[in-house]
Amino acid sequence: MTQATASENPQATAIRARLVALACAWIVFVCAGCQSYPERTQAAFRAFQSGQLESAQKAYARPDTTGSEFLTATETGMVAMAAGDWDTALRYLTDAAKLTKSFEDEALINPESAGETILSWTVNESMTRYQGEGYERVMIHACLAMVYLAKGDLTGAQVEVRRSNALLESEEKLYKKSYKAGGLGHVLSAIAYELDRKLPDAYIDYERMIDKGVGEPLAGKALVRLSRALNRASDLEHWEEKFGVEEEKPEGTASVVIVAGVGLGPYKREITLPIPTSEGLLQWSVPELIRRPQPVSSVSLHVAGGNRAVRTTVVEDVAGVSAENLNDRILWLAAKSAVRAILKYQLTKKLDKELGPLGTLAGIVFTLVTEHADLRAWQTLPDSWQAARVFLEPGTHDLRLSADGGMSVHLGQFELEPGETMFIFARTIETRLFAHPIGGRRISAISAPATPAVEAGTP
Length: 459
Description:
Mean pLDDT is 83; it is low at 1-8, 112-122 and 447-459. It contains 16 helices and 13 strands. It has one domain: CATH 1.25.40.10. Helix content is 53%, strand content 20%.
């Protein structure tokens, strides 16, 4: 061996050692940031799941809990809605809408741009800024509409519903399909129009619900009622034939509208396929949505006297539409994962050539650590949004709300003025029920709940 060769070996060895050390350091760095979203938000979600809304709201409001501005805003906003804290919900959901506005505006002008963003390559999906799934962005504005209604702002509610519908249409254009969605927005919009005495506009919203096949029991009765009020004889005959005859409401009839988020929405789980080879590892990962078991099926309002009761019907299948929306993107996500897998495999081969077995090991570990599906999702959404409406004569009524399959709460006695519409916004979490009456004049305090741990809000 020559002197030159002998002097080069220690130098080459040192360089190789430094490169391996750098590779290992990078792997450790990546490992530190690879905790999945369900794992990092586990404590906050458990607090929400157990009905500890104040603790859950504080936990989600900390930026480090979600690691995402979008999810900090949406999760905190949804917990605040469940608690009936409308001002906090408005602040956080408005923040979420602002965060995604530029993305939304681009998608409305050019729906294909959302696909181009999705197809961009990254080392790991979770390292990108989370803008929310398309359906989640639609939900922000539908929820804001509900908050505005709770605060008595009809104009604000209608603005948010229009934005929600426009974004939903953008998603449908992108994926070239029609989602069985938008019912929540249409219900809120229709009721807002009725309160504003714009019955033809309300009629259109209810008709759209029938066209989409969402909330038909609620929308059908409304169309019968509005057809009569608008003197549309042929429409009245058509809707009565389809949905049955509705008793004509006397002038000045009051009503109670229930809008309820029922259950806990789905969560994402990873599907991973590792393929060992003689020269490295190919690993492919995509997410799938898992629907949670739901102990409560619906919510019922009971009016004392006359055995009157009304049960909510599904107007927005959140879990179903979320899963459908993700399935429409799954081929794109799989393509991204496949591209990353090949590039990381090539990286491993290069490390093997330059650093030997240590380089191969570093490449394999890097692939194992980084190639995972993005499990971020708005987890505090309900499994479904449901609604119902009951018409009552003006005067005093004793009201009880129950979660069918769960708990119930006596809301108290309320005096309704002629023509008044009272709202009850509710949320079920496991078997618990949180209820927030808006409107009416309460003439008796909320009594003790029928069972322990039932929660009720105040207007």
